[in-house]
C-alpha cells in the first residue's frame, strides 16, 4: 500500500512552508523566510503540487504569517520578554525576525517535527535565546507544568497558537485557555480562528487532508473571538485575513471586491471568514 501523501499533521507544516518560501522569493515580499524552502523539502513540494486548494488560498497563509509577525514585533516593542509558541512546527521567527538578544523564545511541539527542524537549521543561529520543548499539548498535566514555569520566569509573555486551535474541540480550547490564564506572567495570546461557514467549506474541500493527517478540522466558534471571554481572555485586536490580504495585494481578482465590503469582528455564521486575534488577560493592566 502506498504511503499517504500526508502521513500526519506535522506534514502540513511542510506544506505551509512552501507558501512561505514562495512569498519570500517575490520581489515585493511582505516577509522573508530564507529557511522555508529547505524546511518544506521535497515532501512539502509534493503536497503543494497535489492539493490545488493550497494554491487557491495561498493569500490566506501569507496574511496569517504577516499578521502574526506584526503581533510579535509590536509585543516585543511594548515590553514582551518571552514568546511561547505552541505547536511551533516549522516556524522560523527566532531566526528571521529582528528580535532583541534578550528575548526568550520557547517552542513547543512533538519530538519528530522539532528534531527535523533542528537538523535542517543546524547551521543557523537564532537572534534571541531559543528553547525547544518536546511535549504533547494534549497532556494536560505536562502543559500546565510548562505554563507554570513560563509564568514564573516571565513578566509579560506572549503565547502564540498559529494554526493550532482548528484541530481542537471547543472544550479543549476552553481548557487550554484556562490553563494559559493561570500563570500571572502570561499577558497576551495570539490565535487564528475561522467561522462555522468557512469550517464547513474547508471540510468539504480538504477532507482528504484531514483523513490522511488524522487531524480533522473542529474549532470554529459561532461566537467568534468572544468565545474566549468566559475563560478570562479579552479580544483586543481582530484582523481579517481577507482584508489583510487585500491590503497586501495578494487576493485573486475574484475576491478583491469582497475585501472592500464592511466586516464585523463578531459572529460570522455561514459567512466564510477567518482572522488573527490578539487576546489579553481580563485581569491584565
Describe the structure.
The structure is a single chain. Helices cover 43% and strands 16% of the residues. It has 285 residues and is α/β, with parallel strands linked by helices. A seven-stranded mixed sheet has the order 3-2-1-4-5-7-6. Helix 1 (10-24) packs across helix 2 (36-50). The model has no long low-confidence stretch (mean pLDDT 93).
Keywords:
16% strand; 285 residues; 7-stranded mixed β-sheet; alpha/beta
CATH superfamily: Vaccinia Virus protein VP39
Name of the CATH first level: Alpha Beta
**Tally of helical segments:** 12
Major β-sheet profile: 7 strands, mixed
SSE sequence, one letter per element: HHHHEHEHEHEHEHHEHHE
Any guess at the CATH architecture? 3-Layer(aba) Sandwich
The share of residues in helices is 40-55%
Rounded to the nearest angstrom, the radius of gyration is 18 Å
Number of extended strands: 7
Remind me, CATH topology?
Rossmann fold
**How many discrete structural domains?**
1
Amino acid at each position: 500500500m502506498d504511503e499517504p501523501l500526508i502521513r500526519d499533521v506535522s506534514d502540513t507544516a511542510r506544506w505551509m512552508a512552501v507558501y512561505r518560501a514562495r512569498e519570500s522569493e517575490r520581489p515585493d515580499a511582505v516577509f522573508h523566510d530564507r529557511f522555508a524552502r529547505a524546511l518544506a523539502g521535497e515532501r512539502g513540494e509534493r503536497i503543494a503540487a497535489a492539493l490545488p486548494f493550497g494554491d487557491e488560498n495561498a493569500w490566506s497563509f501569507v496574511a496569517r504569517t504577516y499578521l502574526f509577525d506584526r503581533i510579535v514585533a509590536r509585543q516585543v516593542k511594548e515590553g514582551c520578554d518571552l514568546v511561547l509558541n505552541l505547536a511551533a512546527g516549522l516556524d522560523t521567527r527566532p531566526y528571521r525576525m529582528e528580535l532583541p538578544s534578550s528575548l526568550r523564545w520557547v517552542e513547543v511541539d512533538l519530538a519528530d517535527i522539532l528534531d527535523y527542524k533542528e537538523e535542517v537549521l543546524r547551521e543557523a543561529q537564532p537572534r534571541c535565546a531559543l528553547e525547544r520543548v518536546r511535549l504533547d499539548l494534549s497532556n494536560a498535566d505536562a502543559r500546565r507544568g510548562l505554563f507554570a514555569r513560563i509564568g514564573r520566569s516571565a513578566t509579560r509573555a506572549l503565547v502564540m497558537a498559529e494554526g493550532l486551535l482548528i484541530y481542537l474541540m471547543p472544550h479543549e480550547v476552553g481548557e487550554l485557555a484556562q490553563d494559559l490564564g493561570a500563570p500571572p506572567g502570561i499577558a497576551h495570546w495570539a490565535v487564528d480562528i475561522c467561522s462555522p461557514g468557512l469550517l464547513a467549506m474547508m471540510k468539504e474541500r480538504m477532507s482528504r487532508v484531514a483523513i490522511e493527517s488524522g487531524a480533522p478540522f473542529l474549532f470554529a466558534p459561532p461566537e467568534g473571538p468572544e468565545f474566549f471571554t468566559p475563560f478570562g481572555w479579552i479580544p483586543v485586536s481582530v484582523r481579517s485575513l481577507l482584508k489583510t490580504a487585500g491590503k497586501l495585494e495578494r487576493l485573486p481578482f475574484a475576491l478583491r471586491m469582497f475585501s472592500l465590503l464592511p466586516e464585523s469582528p463578531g459572529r460570522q455564521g455561514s459567512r466564510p471568514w477567518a482572522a488573527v486575534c490578539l487576546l489579553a488577560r481580563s485581569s491584565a493592566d
